[in-house]
Amino acid sequence: MTENLRPIGLLAELTHRCPLGCPYCSNPLDLVRANQELDTKTWERVFNEAADLGAMHVHLSGGEPLARKDIAELTNAAHLAGLYTNLITSAIGLNAQRLTELRSAGLDHVQISIQGIDPSRADAVAHYKGGSRAKRDAAKLVVEDGLALTINAVIHRGNIADVPAIIDLAEELGAGRLEVAHVQYHGWAIPNRATLMPSREDFLAAAKIVEDARKRLEGTLVIDHVIPDYYAERPKACMGGWGRQVIVVTPDGRALPCHAASTLPGFTFDNVRDRSLSDIWEKSDAFTKFRGTAWMPKPCQGCDRAEIDWGGCRCQAFAITGEAAATDPACALSPDHAKLRDLATADAASTNTAYRFRRIGG
After folding, report:
1. 87 and 109 in contact (C-beta within 8 Å)?
2. Which residues of the chain fall below pLDDT 50?
3. pLDDT digits (tens, 9 = 90+) for 134-179
4. Sign for the pseudo-dihedral over CA of 22, 23, 28, 32
5. Taking a C-beta distance cutoff of 8 angstroms, is the pair 73, 40 a contact?
6. For residues 221 and 178, is the Cβ–Cβ distance under 8 A?
7. Looking at CB atoms within 10 Å, which of 120, 149, 225, 227 has the fewest?
8. Helix (H) or strand (E) holding 181
9. pLDDT by residue (tens digit) across 316-328?
10. Judging by beta carbons within 10 Å of its beta carbon (0-12, 13-18, 19+), is residue 216 exposed, middle or buried?
């Protein structure tokens, strides 16, 4: 290593079990089954090792983390390790009793996903009847209990017209933060891309609405806006840069630099069952391969944004070009940028309305 980097966060994917079937889920197509999941004690060790490495917060995620019977025990272990705890949840099953248990265990923050405004359409996308109502009820409980609340709205062709109403709903529910996050085309979103992709015109209109709301609600509601890479001019610093800020641990214990890294060929992703988190972070090929700038091809090499976006997304580069080390096609300077735009245009024009829903076994 050329830098003494330390992660600031741990994304703990506790399980891939989930009551929802969202067609844009970032989990891999090959979902980990319950009998392969890390046990409580191993997760406790991982939380402590993450804190010792310098991590300040943990995102308790999945799948649906509430599917773990030991979720309160895991929350408490993360809290005792000194980590700020954020539950990323569908809110299905998050009732007053469970919320009280989690808060007593040391839960600091809750992030609830919503699929849209109209309950029937939102439930259809989530593939779960009654989900929309359950989410709103749970969000109210979170605020009443004094916990910090983020609403996460994943935006796609089917709900992009809801953006103004989604902003109003986040205000109404008393959320402190709203993530207007356009679908990122990894995991289950890849086979559903032709159904999910909005038009460029609709994206630009929604972006204007978000920016106006940011100004209007400054000091009241923080709005994060994650734009679709397919309509970007410059790439995002994926996960803050490869192997720079975040460690993802999958339900079966593999440590990854990002959600989708397991899609890249030629890598061996070490397991926390076999190696300590610090050893993986500091020495494993998977974390050091694209860390820094030395690996970058032109035009990334020497670009004045090289240490801003850190080369963008390696998984997207591989998905579009077949080369993980290629310039992220989201960058307008990439020789493959036009290919990304052409894919977006074609998918946005598709008349396909059928989703491939997320489920164990595909």
Report:
1. yes
2. 1-2
3. 999 999 999 999 999 999 999 999 999 999 999 999 999 999 999 9
4. positive
5. yes
6. yes
7. 120
8. strand 177-182
9. 999 999 999 999 9
10. exposed
